[in-house]
């Protein structure tokens, strides 16, 4: 049943009506204020993600990482605008899956939700790759596979005993990341001021005569992973005190703050090293640069702070992915016998935790650029369909047809669709193959499950909201 309120109530920002529509006995409590939503979103983004892809994108864009970040931030802002429209109409947990389900079609909503699950399943793998890269820069004599196995093993062991990260832990991790990033920026600025590597401030990282639009787009497509999670706050609509006001505001604050942070950090990095190949280690450019700007002691501090973030994120990501699979199995979206069971003593979905661990061990065989692109596959699909959902909402539910509604519900979302499709086609071939196979599996499963679309699509509301407060 649709939970769509009347447009007049939405236009008036009537949060009491939204509360009355969505709140019933046994449901989530509305306790989150704007500041809570913003901090949760920033914690989900992981500020130190700015260092992950610097070397690869710098090489791909010929020294224009800040420009690539500007492009992807603009793209994400169009999608953020669409999220802000949809959360006013559907102030309930669910995000992209819910919006497509309600505004377009439940079966299509399932497929979009299915595509989005690829992000959850691959993020622990991405985390293991990053862990091995950073620790390898600090201790190059230790083989890459050792760090992968250790990262996956520690996260798996902690998840199996039922460890839960408190919300306060997220705040501590974000604080540590900001301190590390600030120290990195200060050291870099000192080096630039001293003329190290012939560096001087200029607009070149944002604009130069040798810019190649295709390369910038490809770089932006990779960097989109840095913004994954900005939409996570939309899944908290049922727990926000004023969802139709605060969730849209939080989304925009998160995207703009993160974009400004990412561009600032990469600007000073790119200014000091316009040609990242000078560092020698392109994939591990950031820890190598940390040693250059502050010596071995600062490199150890930088990698240590980063690893605290990596382990925290890895634990949370594996926990989320495992519980996502459990929720899908429990609710019948996946075979219950395989995915819907938990350990009687710990309450942990052991089989799912181990399955996610096996997937994460794929870090032994897949490079950073490839896994990042694969994670972005599902994100671009979800983003494109959220924008499309706004257009469908306009024609299905909105009675007003003035210039304002046409601009907000058709023109802007249409641009968002075009941008996300453009970025989606900029992903590498392997990502398109893996993502295409995943989507095909979801389609075949949906056809079988619904007996050729004659039955309702499986419900994905549970898994999309999994992991935020586990």
Automatic annotation (TrEMBL):
Keywords of this entry: Membrane, Transmembrane, Transmembrane helix
Ranges of residues in domain Amino acid permease/ SLC12A: 36-397
Stretches that traverse the bilayer: 37-56, 68-87, 108-136, 142-161, 173-194, 214-237, 249-269, 289-315, 346-368, 374-394, 406-424, 430-448
Compartment(s) of residence: Membrane
Glycoprotein recorded as keyword: no
Keyword Transmembrane helix assigned: yes
Membrane topology: Multi-pass membrane protein
Cited InterPro entries: AA-permease/SLC12A_dom (IPR004841), APC_superfamily (IPR050367)
Protein name: APC family permease
